[in-house]
Amino acid sequence: LVTPLSSEGQLLPVQQRQQLLPRDISSHVIDSLEEDKKYTVSIYAVYPEGPSKPVSVVGKTCKFISLAQNPIIMFIYINRKAREHQADHSLLCHVIVYNLPKFTFACVCGMCLIVKLVPVHQFLVQNATTDTVQARWASVKGATGYRLTWASTEGHIENINLGDNFNFYMIQGLHTGSEYTITINPIFGDTEGPITTAKIKTLESSSVQTLKVSAVSTSTAVVSWNSVPGATGYRLAWRPTPEFVGRDRPRQLALNTSTTQYQLKNVAHDTEYVLTLYVLFGAAVGPGIAATFRTSPLGYVSNFKVTSYTSTTIDVAWSPIVGATEYKLSWKTENSKPQVQYLDRSILFHRLKDLNPQSTYTVTICAVYGNSEGPEISLSHDFEFIMIREVKVEDIGVNSFTLSWKKAPGASGYKISWIPFLGGDEKSHVVSADFASYTIRNLRESSAYKIQVSSMVGSREGSAVLVTARTLDLPKVEGFVALNTTDNSTVLNWTRVAGASGYRLSWRHISVFDTKTEFLGPGFTYYKISDLLYGRTYLFTIRPLYGEVEGPISTMYQRICKTLSKLFD
After folding, report:
1. Cβ partners under 8 Å of residue 377, min gap 6
2. Among residues 98, 116, 134, which one ends one of the domains?
3. Residues 17 and 90 in one domain
4. d(CA 329, CA 367)
5. In this structure, are 8 and 103 located in the same domain?
6. Does the pLDDT of residue 460 top 80, yes or no?
7. Within a domain: residue 209?
8. Which among 295, 311, 508, 564 has the fewest CB atoms less than 10 Å away?
């Protein structure tokens, strides 16, 4: 409706004119108007059951042909309850009045449409952690924002207003194992649309409680864990620890919710790995749990020794190697070319025949893996000397080996030598003929060594018997738990580790990577950490220190509100 106004501002209905526009029109030029005159322009939506309440704007034509510097812009919103029979509809109309050429002006509707106040569809709420749920929804056309509300069964209610560009939100700070009602409604300007409701119960536990690594070989390891209720899957990641960076690349994979065991393959030999298992809840990633393991040295033949000999033969034996396809055995004197014999992997004994009794032989063996050969192990045999028998590793410690042997008649002493399997300085020690055992000390923890024992006659050294052994891992912290947890602090307790020179204690929120660390003396068995966030879950780790060497890691997760702690291996 276009109605002129008198000079006193009164409507002149006699001169009123009316036009019916198609519903897909959003702008219209009104022409044939009088110069320098005010008009009222009213727009209303037409429904089958009748028209809506109109919105109006006043404009004035110009004396000159020009465009206005600042167009008049008016936002008009018709309450959806203006008509009871149209309670689910509203008219949103941007009316822009321009001073156009003489006798005309335009009423431009930036958005002139009937918007049905529809609810949010595809509203999905999923668990993320024990204190967090993720809400996702499909965008509502025409909505200027959303109001997300969550309420506990105890009546605690919180809400947040989000912009129209949001289609998901992480609701944090919830109570473990509690039921919540989550609602969302679109907002259209100053009016709220219909509410969509979902209910969810937060998780009792959102992380794996038990993570174990077993059946570790040179290139494989079996990882197992307990299932997490509500999880949609798991993400397993492994990489070398900082000390072994470069030995292998970081890797990860996704597993379905029914999987609670997985075999890692093609990992590097003699390498320490840190393994992390994350729980998946749809698109959300829950907290991770970590463990470390170390693979065995790559396929070296262990317990390679001479079991007996005659004037022209030498019998050698060895222990089986997992994964070997065959064994390569070679022998030679100082001035001869090596003779080579390939043996099936089921063979653990071989007799060398037709040997020269006046010569010293070097016998070498290595495991073969397809087209690749493992490291070699060698020993020497001199027919003029009586060989030491029954050489054994009686005791293995973190930094020591204790050897024993059967005395050789006529020997004036015994020489014990040892060298790290992967290379390094060889060390040796000579004991008198009265000795039948010896303890090698000051070895490196978690390391493999080649050890040889040979008889001595004066200054001459006889044939050596070779054995291999590996020192134990350093002790880890046991009894790592959280006690006396408040709304912003917790006290960590652990059992003292004998021989440790101190402890490295670290913690971080599970959602961030910024880690705080404290170095504590050997006398500490507890430590209080403050300034923590209420309702959040933290990862705590501790390692014993042995001088400049760090021991194995112990890991624990703790939610700051009540004590729910467990030590993870």
Report:
1. 300, 301, 304, 364, 365, 366, 450, 466, 468
2. 116
3. yes
4. 9
5. yes
6. no
7. no
8. 311
Q: Is residue 174 within 8 Å of residue 202, measured between CB atoms?
A: yes
Where is average pLDDT lowest: 71-85, 207-221, 340-354, 542-556? 71-85
Q: How far apart are the first and last CA of the chain?
A: 80
Q: Does residue 463 share a domain with residue 358?
A: yes
With cut-offs at 50, 70 and 90, classify the pLDDT of residue 36: confident
Pair (142, 112) in one structural domain: no
Q: Quick one: tokens of 147? A: 């109001």
Q: How many domains does the chain have?
A: 5
Asked whether the beta carbons of 417 and 437 are under 8 A apart, the reply is no
Residue 444 belongs to a domain: yes
CB atoms within 10 A of CB 173: 13
Q: Is residue 426 part of a domain?
A: yes
| CATH number of 264's domain | 2.60.40.10
Cα–Cα dist 323/298, whole Å:
10
Whether residues 105 and 156 share a domain: the answer is: no
pLDDT (0 to 100) of residue 428: 94
Residue 345, CA distances (Å) to 217, 328, 369 in order: 17, 10, 10
* pLDDT-based confidence at residue 332 (cuts at 50, 70, 90): very high
Is 419:493 a contact under the CB 8 Å cutoff? no
Report CA-CA distances (Å) from 90 to 25, 121, 145, 191, 475: 17, 19, 16, 10, 72
In Å, what is the CA distance from 118 to each residue of 89, 92, 185, 186, 201?
9, 15, 9, 8, 27
Rounded distance between C-alpha atoms, residue 408 and residue 123, angstroms: 83
Domain range for 432 is 305-470
b/e map 378-402, b = 16+ CB within 10 Å? bbbbbbebebbeebbbeeeebbebb
Q: Are residues 444 and 310 in the same domain?
A: yes
Whether residue 507 contacts residue 538, with contact meaning beta carbons closer than 8 Å, is answered with yes
**What does DSSP assign to residue 140?**
P
Task: Judge if 105 and 35 occupy the same domain.
Answer: yes
Structure tokens at 459: 């200054």
Q: Which residue, chain included where needed, has tokens 């050969």?
A: 373
Q: How confident is the model at residue 316, as a pLDDT?
A: 92
Among the candidates 269, 294, 319, a domain finishes at: 294
The structure tokens listed for 422 are 């992967």
**What is each CA distance from 36 to 8, 420, 504, in whole angstroms?**
14, 103, 85
- Taking the C-alpha atoms of residue 265 and residue 295, their distance in angstroms, rounded to an integer, is 11
Question: Does the residue 63 lie in any domain?
Answer: yes
Q: What would the pLDDT profile of 254-276 be if each residue is shown by its tens digit?
A: 999 899 999 999 888 778 899 99
Instruction: Look at 383 and 104; give whichever has higher pLDDT.
Output: 383
* Three-state DSSP class for residue 244: helix
Q: How far is CA 126 from CA 132, 161, 282, in A?
A: 9, 20, 7
